[in-house]
Each structure stands twice: as C-alpha cells, then as structure tokens.
What we know:
binds L-homoserine, 18 strands, 36% helix, binds NADPH dihydro-nicotinamide-adenine-dinucleotide phosphate, six-stranded parallel sheet, alpha/beta
Amino acid sequence: MKKVRVAILGIGTVGGGTYQILTENHDWIAAARGLDIEVAKVLDKSVDRITAKGVPANKATADLNDILSDPSISIVVETMGGVEPAGTFIMKALSAGKSVVTANKELISKRWSELEATAKKNGAGLYFEASCVGGVPIIRTLNDAMQANRITQLYGIINGTTNYILTEMTEKGKSYAEALKDAQALGYAEADPTADVEGFDAMYKLSILSSLGFHTCIPYSEIYREGITAITPADIAVGKDFGYTLKLLAIGKRDGNDVEVRVHPTFVPNEHPLASVRGSFNAVFLTGDFVDDIMLYGRGAGARPTGSAIVSDVVYCAERSAHVYSDFDNNGKLDSAIKLKKDFESAYYISLKLADRPGVLSKITNILGSYGVSIDKAMQHGVADNYAPVVFFTHKTDETSMRKALHEIETLDVVHSVDAVIRVL
Ligand code: NDP
Ligand code: HSE
C-alpha cells in the first residue's frame, strides 16, 4: 500500500473537518484506493489549540520549518485562509517540491498564475476543489467531465453564508444581523464576513470557475459585484408575493469571445431549480453546447463538506505521478481577444417611494418608456408618511438604459427615494 504523509496548516473549521475525515475514514480510503494517508503534522498558532482538536502532541507544531524540512511529507493542506502568510507558506511548500491542496479561493483567485508556475517548476501539484462550492465537486466536473463541451453559461449560488442568511430571512423572518450571527456560529462565514455579504467570496469563486469553464483567464477584478447588505425584508416579501426567491447569484456567460461575469442579488422565479436551493446548500447550473443543462447541488460550506473536498484532492493528488495544471494560458491577465460585456441585459425590480399625488406614476413610466424600459408588473402597497411605496418589475432591458432612467427618475421632485434595484432572472 502506498504511504502518503500529509501536513495540515490551520486547524479551524475546514482543517478540523479534514483531520476528522483523514482519521475516521483512514481505513475506508485505504481499502478503496490503496492509500495509507497519515496526518504527519498539524500547524496552527499554538500547539495547545491543535492538541485540543485531538491531534497527538508529537504531530503539533507552530513552526512551518518542521514541515518543510521533513522530506517524507509530500502533501501540504492549507486551511488557514487569507492571502498572507498563507501565500508565502504555500510558495515555500511548492518550492520544496511538496504538492499543495487548498481551500483558499481568495489566494487562488489573486495569485493563481504565480502559484501554478511555482508548482510546475517544482513538479508539484496544486489542487483547490475545496475553494469553490464546499463539498460540491464542481472543479473536478469542469476539468474532468465537461471536456466535450463549450460551456456557454454558468449560474451559481456559490456562497453558503449569504444563501443561509437569505433563506433564514425569507422563511423564518429573521433579521439580517441575527441570520449572519447564526451563519458565523455554524462555521460558514469567512474570518471577516464582509467577504461573504459584500459578494467578494462569490466573486473570487466565479473568477476560478469561469476561468476553468471558459478556458481563459477571468481576473476577479473584471467581475461586476454587489452584495446583499442593502437587501431589506420588505424586498424579500414583495418578491415572494410575485413568485420570486431572492438569491445572491454568480453569473458567467461566454458567446464566442464575448464574456459576461457578475455577482449580485437576483430574484429567481420559484419554478427555476436554483430557487429551491436553501440554507448553506449551494448549486451550480451549467450549460454546455452538447450536454445541455446540468446542475450540481450540495453543501457549500462547513467543516465536513469542505473537508470532503480537501480529502478528495489529497487522494487525487496522491494517485498522480504527473500533476494536472490549467489547460489555458494562466497568466493572470484577461486575454486581449476576450471582450468583457459590461452592458449586460436583465429584467429588473425597482422599489420607489413616490409622492401620493395624481399623475406621479405616469411621470415614472414616461421616463422608463423613453429609455425603452418596458414595465411587466407594478404595485403600490399602501401609503407611509405621505409617500406611496411603489414597486415595478420590468421586462428585459440593458443595464445602461436602466441606470440612465433611474438617474433621471431620482431627480424628480415627486420621488422621495429609490430604495432598491434588484435584477430578475
Ligand atoms: P478558520 O478561521 O476556522 O481556521 C483557520 C485556522 O488557521 C485558525 O485556527 C487560524 O487561527 C489558523 N491560522 C490563521 N493564520 C495562521 C497562521 N499565520 N499561522 C498558523 N495558524 C494560522 O477558517 P476556515 O476553516 O473557516 O477557513 C479556512 C479556509 O478555508 C479559508 O481560506 C476559507 O475561505 C476556506 N473555506 C472555508 C469554508 C468554510 O465553510 N468555513 C468552506 C470552503 C473554503 P486564528 O483563528 O487564531 O487566526
Ligand atoms: N464563507 C464561504 C461561504 C465558505 O459561506 O460560502 C465556503 O467557501
């Protein structure tokens, strides 16, 4: 049986889940795959913290050199998070010829080309299934199961924290703050949850997934991003009344060299499969030119699902003598042939507070009409403080026309406020 010695850097939520799987399922994996995987060292900030997780004291260290200097350790699992010092630790491990398995989407999306170049130079592997969509094998699917296809579109709920928050607000009427606190307690959120709720985490993941799916480098900085912090329970409730569920959606599309990549809250019609993805579950809905639509679904965050993805990479890596790298020019830059579409098309939900006077609605509809924005549905719900809260759902229009129309609407003296603008799938 092949012996594989592994080190884990960071024994928090994901590192802890990884250690648990490698310990509890050691014999199962050995029997199925012929691999005797041993956790040889675990690094964290203090030895006490590591032993508190059940790791024997002789395997606990706070010094990376204990791992780098041990030639019998061939795979380093990075589950510390953040760009630094994780980036330096990974570079050192790769430079020492050790393969790296990481859950760190921020680091991969920001320094993928540099890390991959170092891995290649040293004949080491660099695997990151756990970086995107927790326990769902989306990277393996894109790399190893979709080769026959041009991926034309990818719609994903790819952040567990925000999906958990939106589900709790929608179904249990929890406040945003209460739902976020629960997501943190369950181990779903990033160390700084701003990354989740402002859409950065989904943006990093979309950069990785769209690069793999579209076979070209899609830098994270090119992705349009909005988070969920401006969403109110009132918007969620109106959407519900009209048959929509609110989701933080990551969207990627490729048509020839035209690419569109964006992350923002979206009203998803209840009949769409993504509308039923609840709590910390995630899903990615892909369309390939031959396979048509497929959807992958599972837990997008948490110790056990993410640990599962890490261990799958450890096994994948251990079984290979020649490692697998990107099959596109992974230089960190947008290919000059690719045209990024910023003026994407969407249907919209707009929530306004208007003066409660005759003729006001027609002023709004006239402006929308002058920019070619056609109204699908409209509703006034009561009167509050002499203002009428009104919502519109529009037909599909382009982003520029909608922004120009809203800009003009905001200047009207009968408009108290534009409270929400949410795209509709
Ligand atoms: P945690 O904060 O729970 O765990 C990270 C651990 O690493 C902590 O014990 C932390 O200590 C330790 N650590 C951080 N920096 C250092 C350092 N310089 N030296 C030694 N130890 C260090 O994070 P998670 O497990 O939640 O996340 C880890 C990674 O996995 C991140 O990249 C995250 O994005 C990713 N991920 C997380 C998922 C989840 O569900 N939580 C799912 C998918 C990916 P301290 O707390 O003191 O900083
Ligand atoms: N914070 C991330 C999420 C962890 O909530 O999806 C999984 O990548």
